[in-house]
Design brief:
Oligomer: single chain
Structural class: alpha/beta
CATH class: Alpha Beta
Distance between the termini: 30 Å
Helix content: 25-40%
Order of helices and strands: EEEHEHEHEHEHE
CATH architecture: Alpha-Beta Barrel
Number of strands: 8
CATH topology: TIM Barrel
Shape: globular
Length: about 160
């Protein structure tokens, strides 16, 4: 089966499918079954997060899908616990997923009360340089948060995912 959805080119040159599988609030077992069924009918993108507590199930589905890894697009997010040490958080994401890299890693929330989201963004930039992810982005950032990280680093997110 081919990709169910068209893809869009990101600034980083990664291609993201227009639609994908969201995994909240499924547990590891449910998410693995759902992802495998989705991959079978043509879905090629899956979105998870450390906070969802189902990255292990997503990773198993990716590894057991029978599809080449480069045909699947895995998005994950790290939470506020890792804003001060984002590379450690990203390594934790990848370890739980059981994958060498993610296609897109996002800062899950800016958490401005912590005021570490610029540091978290700098860590994502480094993660991309190290090959731990193909694309980097943010989740639920407001324009002021985006302006601040861009002004501080000169790097614009590939994606700002907004929770509806």
């Amino acid at each position: 089966m081919t990709n169910l959805a068209p893809t869009y080119d990101l600034k980083s040159d990664a291609k993201i499918p227009a639609i994908g599988l969201g995994t909240w609030p499924l547990d590891d077992r449910e998410v693995e079954q759902m992802c495998l069924a989705g991959f079978e009918i043509g879905y090629r993108m899956v979105d998870t997060a450390e906070n969802y507590r189902n990255e292990a199930g997503v990773g198993r589905a990716v590894r057991n899908s029978g599809l080449p890894r480069e045909e699947l697009f895995v998005t994950t997010k790290f939470n506020r616990e890792w804003h001060g040490d984002p590379l450690a958080g990203i390594q934790q994401n990848l370890s739980t997923l059981g994958l060498d890299y993610a296609d897109l890693i996002l800062i899950h929330w800016p958490n401005p009360d912590q005021d570490l989201y610029v540091q978290a963004w700098e860590g994502l930039i480094e993660a991309r340089q190290r090959g731990l992810t193909r694309a980097i982005g943010t989740s639920n950032f407001k324009p002021a948060h985006l302006e601040r990280i861009i002004d501080a680093t000169g790097v614009t997110p590939d994606v700002n995912q907004i929770q509806c």
